[in-house]
């Protein structure tokens, strides 16, 4: 019963994080809609997207995206042994994290001009000057991300998922506000307002909000520079610092190599990737983030049987959900891109150019789910070395593929960038899962591939119905405005697809339908009970 309860809580946590990521992705898409409307896929938007290469790399260099992952297991152990010692350790980590990110951000700010030339070799000199200006605005935002990640680790330990779920929403909201308001009041030009929004959103969403939340549950800050467990944290973080995984660098590769694929390629790749990351975030990342505290707790107890059970549940559930979602998106890729981005300076021709890029990237989504959950299983066992080594090898395999393929594709180089990115993620995910199977046995991974295949087969009738709905809407909605027709097409085809998949699953795989619907129904019941009180 305890295991069942833990799995139910893991499912509820995954639902909370999934809803958060879904809303965050939609806000991100709304932000990119404003960008595409105002700037299309051209020089200014290319510069803006390229401005994140250096800040993101600094974040990866300090394992900022993995701070919670490396910190949670150690804090869990110390708080169980001695709470006072846990707070001392947290204060020491926070101090070092702040000093390190502050130093690198200042150095990057001072070297913005040469860095701009390095990360965007295909840009003109004027574009590189503009890129350096953008860099000097967004780089200081990193100062708030890393300390904020340390604070968020405390919230995850307490199983407080709501505030971490709100953080990306606030961050994206400020970017959107900055991009819309600042140019209108004359405080920014072009896409500079979005850059200032990044800085404000990082401070308020990534740092201030979790700080206020963690203080409500009790917070003791003891800054320091020395602690016996600091070496252990460094040992866990070192592989993440030295090794650069393809799943965190693929976006940067798209920007760097996209700058060599002609004007607008960086923006088109970015717009396509934004849509692809919706199912990745809603299912894959949410499942990984939600399962990690539970996996870390089971690993700390050395309850390996329960660990394998929880890991297997997370993997199979992810595949059951992400495969049909990806299948539907493959069907309606042009309409999704058109609805979100088309209009203003984003033309139908640019929509048609981005659609094949999106379809190529979508093929990697199930592998993203496999990697996100499997990777956190390694981190829960305090093994950061293996994912870093496997991810670095996948990165090293991708680099010659980019360099060899792009010159041979000419005007289709953007397709090559998308293809190499998708293949490298798939390679990494499969290799990491094989390593896990060799070390831990096949127990947790038994049935994962079968779940993905079966979920796809169950999706085929729904896909056929959805294709019919698309055809019917296109025939009947010819007089509707383009935006309205795209909306109706997506709404009708999406409804028909969900209904078709649900009915098929109801008769041939009722357990799949239960996995998809149970967390949502539990949340609705709890909400109804609270409302009844």
Description:
With 533 residues, this protein is mainly alpha-helical. The protein has helices at 2-39, 43-50, 53-61, 67-81, 83-110, 112-119, 125-138, 142-157, 162-184, 192-216, 230-242, 246-258, 265-300, 304-331, 333-341, 348-362, 365-380, 385-409, 413-440, 448-476, 482-508, 510-532. Helix 4 runs antiparallel to helix 11 (230-242).
- Based on DSSP secondary structure assignment, what is the total number of beta strands? 0
Mean of pLDDT = 82
Helix content: over 70%
The amount of beta strand, in percent, is under 5%
Instruction: Give Rg in angstroms.
Output: 23 Å
Report the biggest beta sheet as strand number plus sense, adding barrel if it closes.
none
How many DSSP H or I helices? 22
Structural class based on helices, strands and sheet pairing: mainly alpha
Q: How would you describe the shape?
A: globular
Cα distance spanning the termini: 27 Å
**SSE pattern:** HHHHHHHHHHHHHHHHHHHHHH
Q: What order do the helices and strands come in, and which of them pair?
A:
Elements: H1 2-39, H2 43-50, H3 53-61, H4 67-81, H5 83-110, H6 112-119, H7 125-138, H8 142-157, H9 162-184, H10 192-216, H11 230-242, H12 246-258, H13 265-300, H14 304-331, H15 333-341, H16 348-362, H17 365-380, H18 385-409, H19 413-440, H20 448-476, H21 482-508, H22 510-532
């Amino acid at each position: 019963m305890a295991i069942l309860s833990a799995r139910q809580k893991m499912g509820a946590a995954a639902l909370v994080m999934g809803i958060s990521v879904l809303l965050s992705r939609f806000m991100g898409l709304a932000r990119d809609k404003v960008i595409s409307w105002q700037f299309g896929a051209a020089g200014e938007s290319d510069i803006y997207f390229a401005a994140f290469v250096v800040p993101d790399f600094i974040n990866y260099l300090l394992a900022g995206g993995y701070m919670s992952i490396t910190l949670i297991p150690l804090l869990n152990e110390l708080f169980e042994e001695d709470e006072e010692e846990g707070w001392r350790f947290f204060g020491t980590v926070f101090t070092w994290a702040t000093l390190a990110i502050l130093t690198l951000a200042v150095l990057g700010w001072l070297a913005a001009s040469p860095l701009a030339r390095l990360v965007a070799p295909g840009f003109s000199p004027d574009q590189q000057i503009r890129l350096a200006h953008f860099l000097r605005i967004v780089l200081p935002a990193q100062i708030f991300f890393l300390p904020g990640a340390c604070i968020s680790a405390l919230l995850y330990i307490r199983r407080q998922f709501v505030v971490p779920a709100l953080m990306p929403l606030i961050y994206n909201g400020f970017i959107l506000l900055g991009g819309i308001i600042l140019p209108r009041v004359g405080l920014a030009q072009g896409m500079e307002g979005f850059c200032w929004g990044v800085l404000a959103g990082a401070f308020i969403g990534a740092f201030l909000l979790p700080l206020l939340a963690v203080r409500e549950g009790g917070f003791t800050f003891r800054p320091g520079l020395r602690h016996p467990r600091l070496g252990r944290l460094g040992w866990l973080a070192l592989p993440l610092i030295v090794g650069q995984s393809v799943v965190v660098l693929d976006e940067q590769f798209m920007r760097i190599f996209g700058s060599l694929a002609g004007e607008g390629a960086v923006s088109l790749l970015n717009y396509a990737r934004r849509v692809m990351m919706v199912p990745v975030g809603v299912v894959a990342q949410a499942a990984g983030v939600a399962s990690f505290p539970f996996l870390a707790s089971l690993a700390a107890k050395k309850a390996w049987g329960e660990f394998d059970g929880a890991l297997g549940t997370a993997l199979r559930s992810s595949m059951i959900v992400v495969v049909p979602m990806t299948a539907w998106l493959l069907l309606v890729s042009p309409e999704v891109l058109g609805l979100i981005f088309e209009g203003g300076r984003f033309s139908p021709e640019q929509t048609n150019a981005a659609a094949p890029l999106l379809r190529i990237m979508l093929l990697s989504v199930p592998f993203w789910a496999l990697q996100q959950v499997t990777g956190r299983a390694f981190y829960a066992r305090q093994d950061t070395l293996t994912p870093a080594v496997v991810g670095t090898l996948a990165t090293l395999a991708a680099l010659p593929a980019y360099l060899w393929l792009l010159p041979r594709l000419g005007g289709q180089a953007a397709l090559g960038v998308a293809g190499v990115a998708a293949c490298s993620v798939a390679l990494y995910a499969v290799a990491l899962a094989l390593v896990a199977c060799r070390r831990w046995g096949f127990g947790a991974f038994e049935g994962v591939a079968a779940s993905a295949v079966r979920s796809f087969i169950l999706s085929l009738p729904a896909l056929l119905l959805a294709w019919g709905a698309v055809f019917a809407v296109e025939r009947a909605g010819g007089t509707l405005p383009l935006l309205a027709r795209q909306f109706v097409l997506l709404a009708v085809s999406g409804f028909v697809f969900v209904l078709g998949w649900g009915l098929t699953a109801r008769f041939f795989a009722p357990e799949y339908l239960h996995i998809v619907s149970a967390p949502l129904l539990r949340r609705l019941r709890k909400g109804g009970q609270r409302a009844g009180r």
